[in-house]
Write a structure and sequence with these properties.
about 250 residues, alpha/beta, Rossmann fold, 4-stranded antiparallel sheet, 10 helices, 10 strands, about 35% helix, binds adenosine-5'-diphosphate, binds magnesium ion, ATP hydrolysis activity, ABC_AA/LPS_Transport, AAA+_ATPase, ABC_transporter-like_ATP-bd, ATP-binding
């Protein structure tokens, strides 16, 4: 039996009277890889904003870890420090620094590479840097300036910087956007490996990418779960076909 790491129940949030998240319930185990799909505006990004504390729900519970702490009582930085990492669509690596320096900065603080850039600069663990670089496929690029990397490589570096902080839950929003087919393949492999030891939630539109992730899929629609199960299971669901696939 896998332990539940994160549980949302009865979560709702409205923006100017519009219910972006509507009585949403969701659970993920540890370790687990989960894909979230759904039409534009379904609430996928808002769902991640709620978990990371960027958006506060009007109702509901968001419970994390074996001590069942409520994330609703924590600040964004407390949530990040408690082991929830998030990768946004646009990579935010330090372009003037090398791949090695970026990873070293991420490693020299348990959570929060930006804090390190501002306050501490002690690179740690050459071995761990190389391990991470190998993990993300950048072992031959350690001395390159990050600004010279391809879009896909920057995304991997950012994932590596998040993995350096060893999150228990990693949230990744639309990683495949702008990637070549080969980069997409590498990214699915990377996320699958990362999810062997932690919970990873991936929001993605690209069905081929989701198929390669080969994991349980949650379909969001109008801020609620419309269907959940294997990709084959949810893509046969009539409601899913009507609101998402049929269009
Ligand atoms: N901060 C916000 N203020 C107002 N409306 C928002 C805000 N964030 C999201 N929304 C609205 O909530 C809905 C869900 O958005 P979002 O979570 O970004 O969807 P998705 O990521 O599934 O495309 C959309 O209608 C969006 O316009
Ligand atoms: Mg979105």
């Amino acid at each position: 039996m896998m332990n539940t790491l994160l549980e949302l129940s009865g979560v709702s949030v409205s923006f100017d009277g519009f219910r972006a998240i509507n009585n949403l319930s969701f659970q993920i185990g540890e370790p687990e890889l989960r894909a979230i799909i759904g039409p534009n505006g379904a609430g996928k990004t808002t769902f991640m904003d709620i978990i990371t504390g960027k958006t506060r729900p009007d109702e509901g519970r968001v419970i994390f870890g074996e001590k069942s702490v409520s994330l609703l009582k924590m600040s964004e930085s407390q949530i990040a420090r408690s082991g929830i990492g998030r990768k946004f669509q646009k990579p935010t690596v330090f372009e003037a620094q090398t791949v090695r320096e970026n990873l070293a900065m991420a490693l020299s603080n348990p959570r929060g590479p930006f804090d390190v850039l501002l306050h501490r600069k002690t690179p740690t663990g050459a071995h761990r840097i190389e391990e991470l670089a190998a993990e993300i496929g950048l072992i031959d690029h350690l001395t390159r300036r990050s600004g010279e990397l391809s879009h896909g490589q920057k995304q991997w570096l950012e994932i590596g910087m998040l993995l350096a902080q060893d999150p228990r839950l990693l949230l990744v929003d639309e990683p495949a956007a702008g990637m070549t087919p080969a980069e997409r393949e590498h990214t699915t492999d990377l996320l699958k490996r990362a999810a062997q030891t932690r919970a990873v939630v991936v929001v993605e539109h690209d069905m081929e990418f989701v198929r390669r992730l080969d994991c349980k899929v949650t379909v969001l629609h109008e801020g609620s779960v419309l269907a959940e199960g294997s990709l084959d299971h949810v893509t046969k669901n009539k409601d899913v076909i009507d609101v998402y696939l049929g269009r």
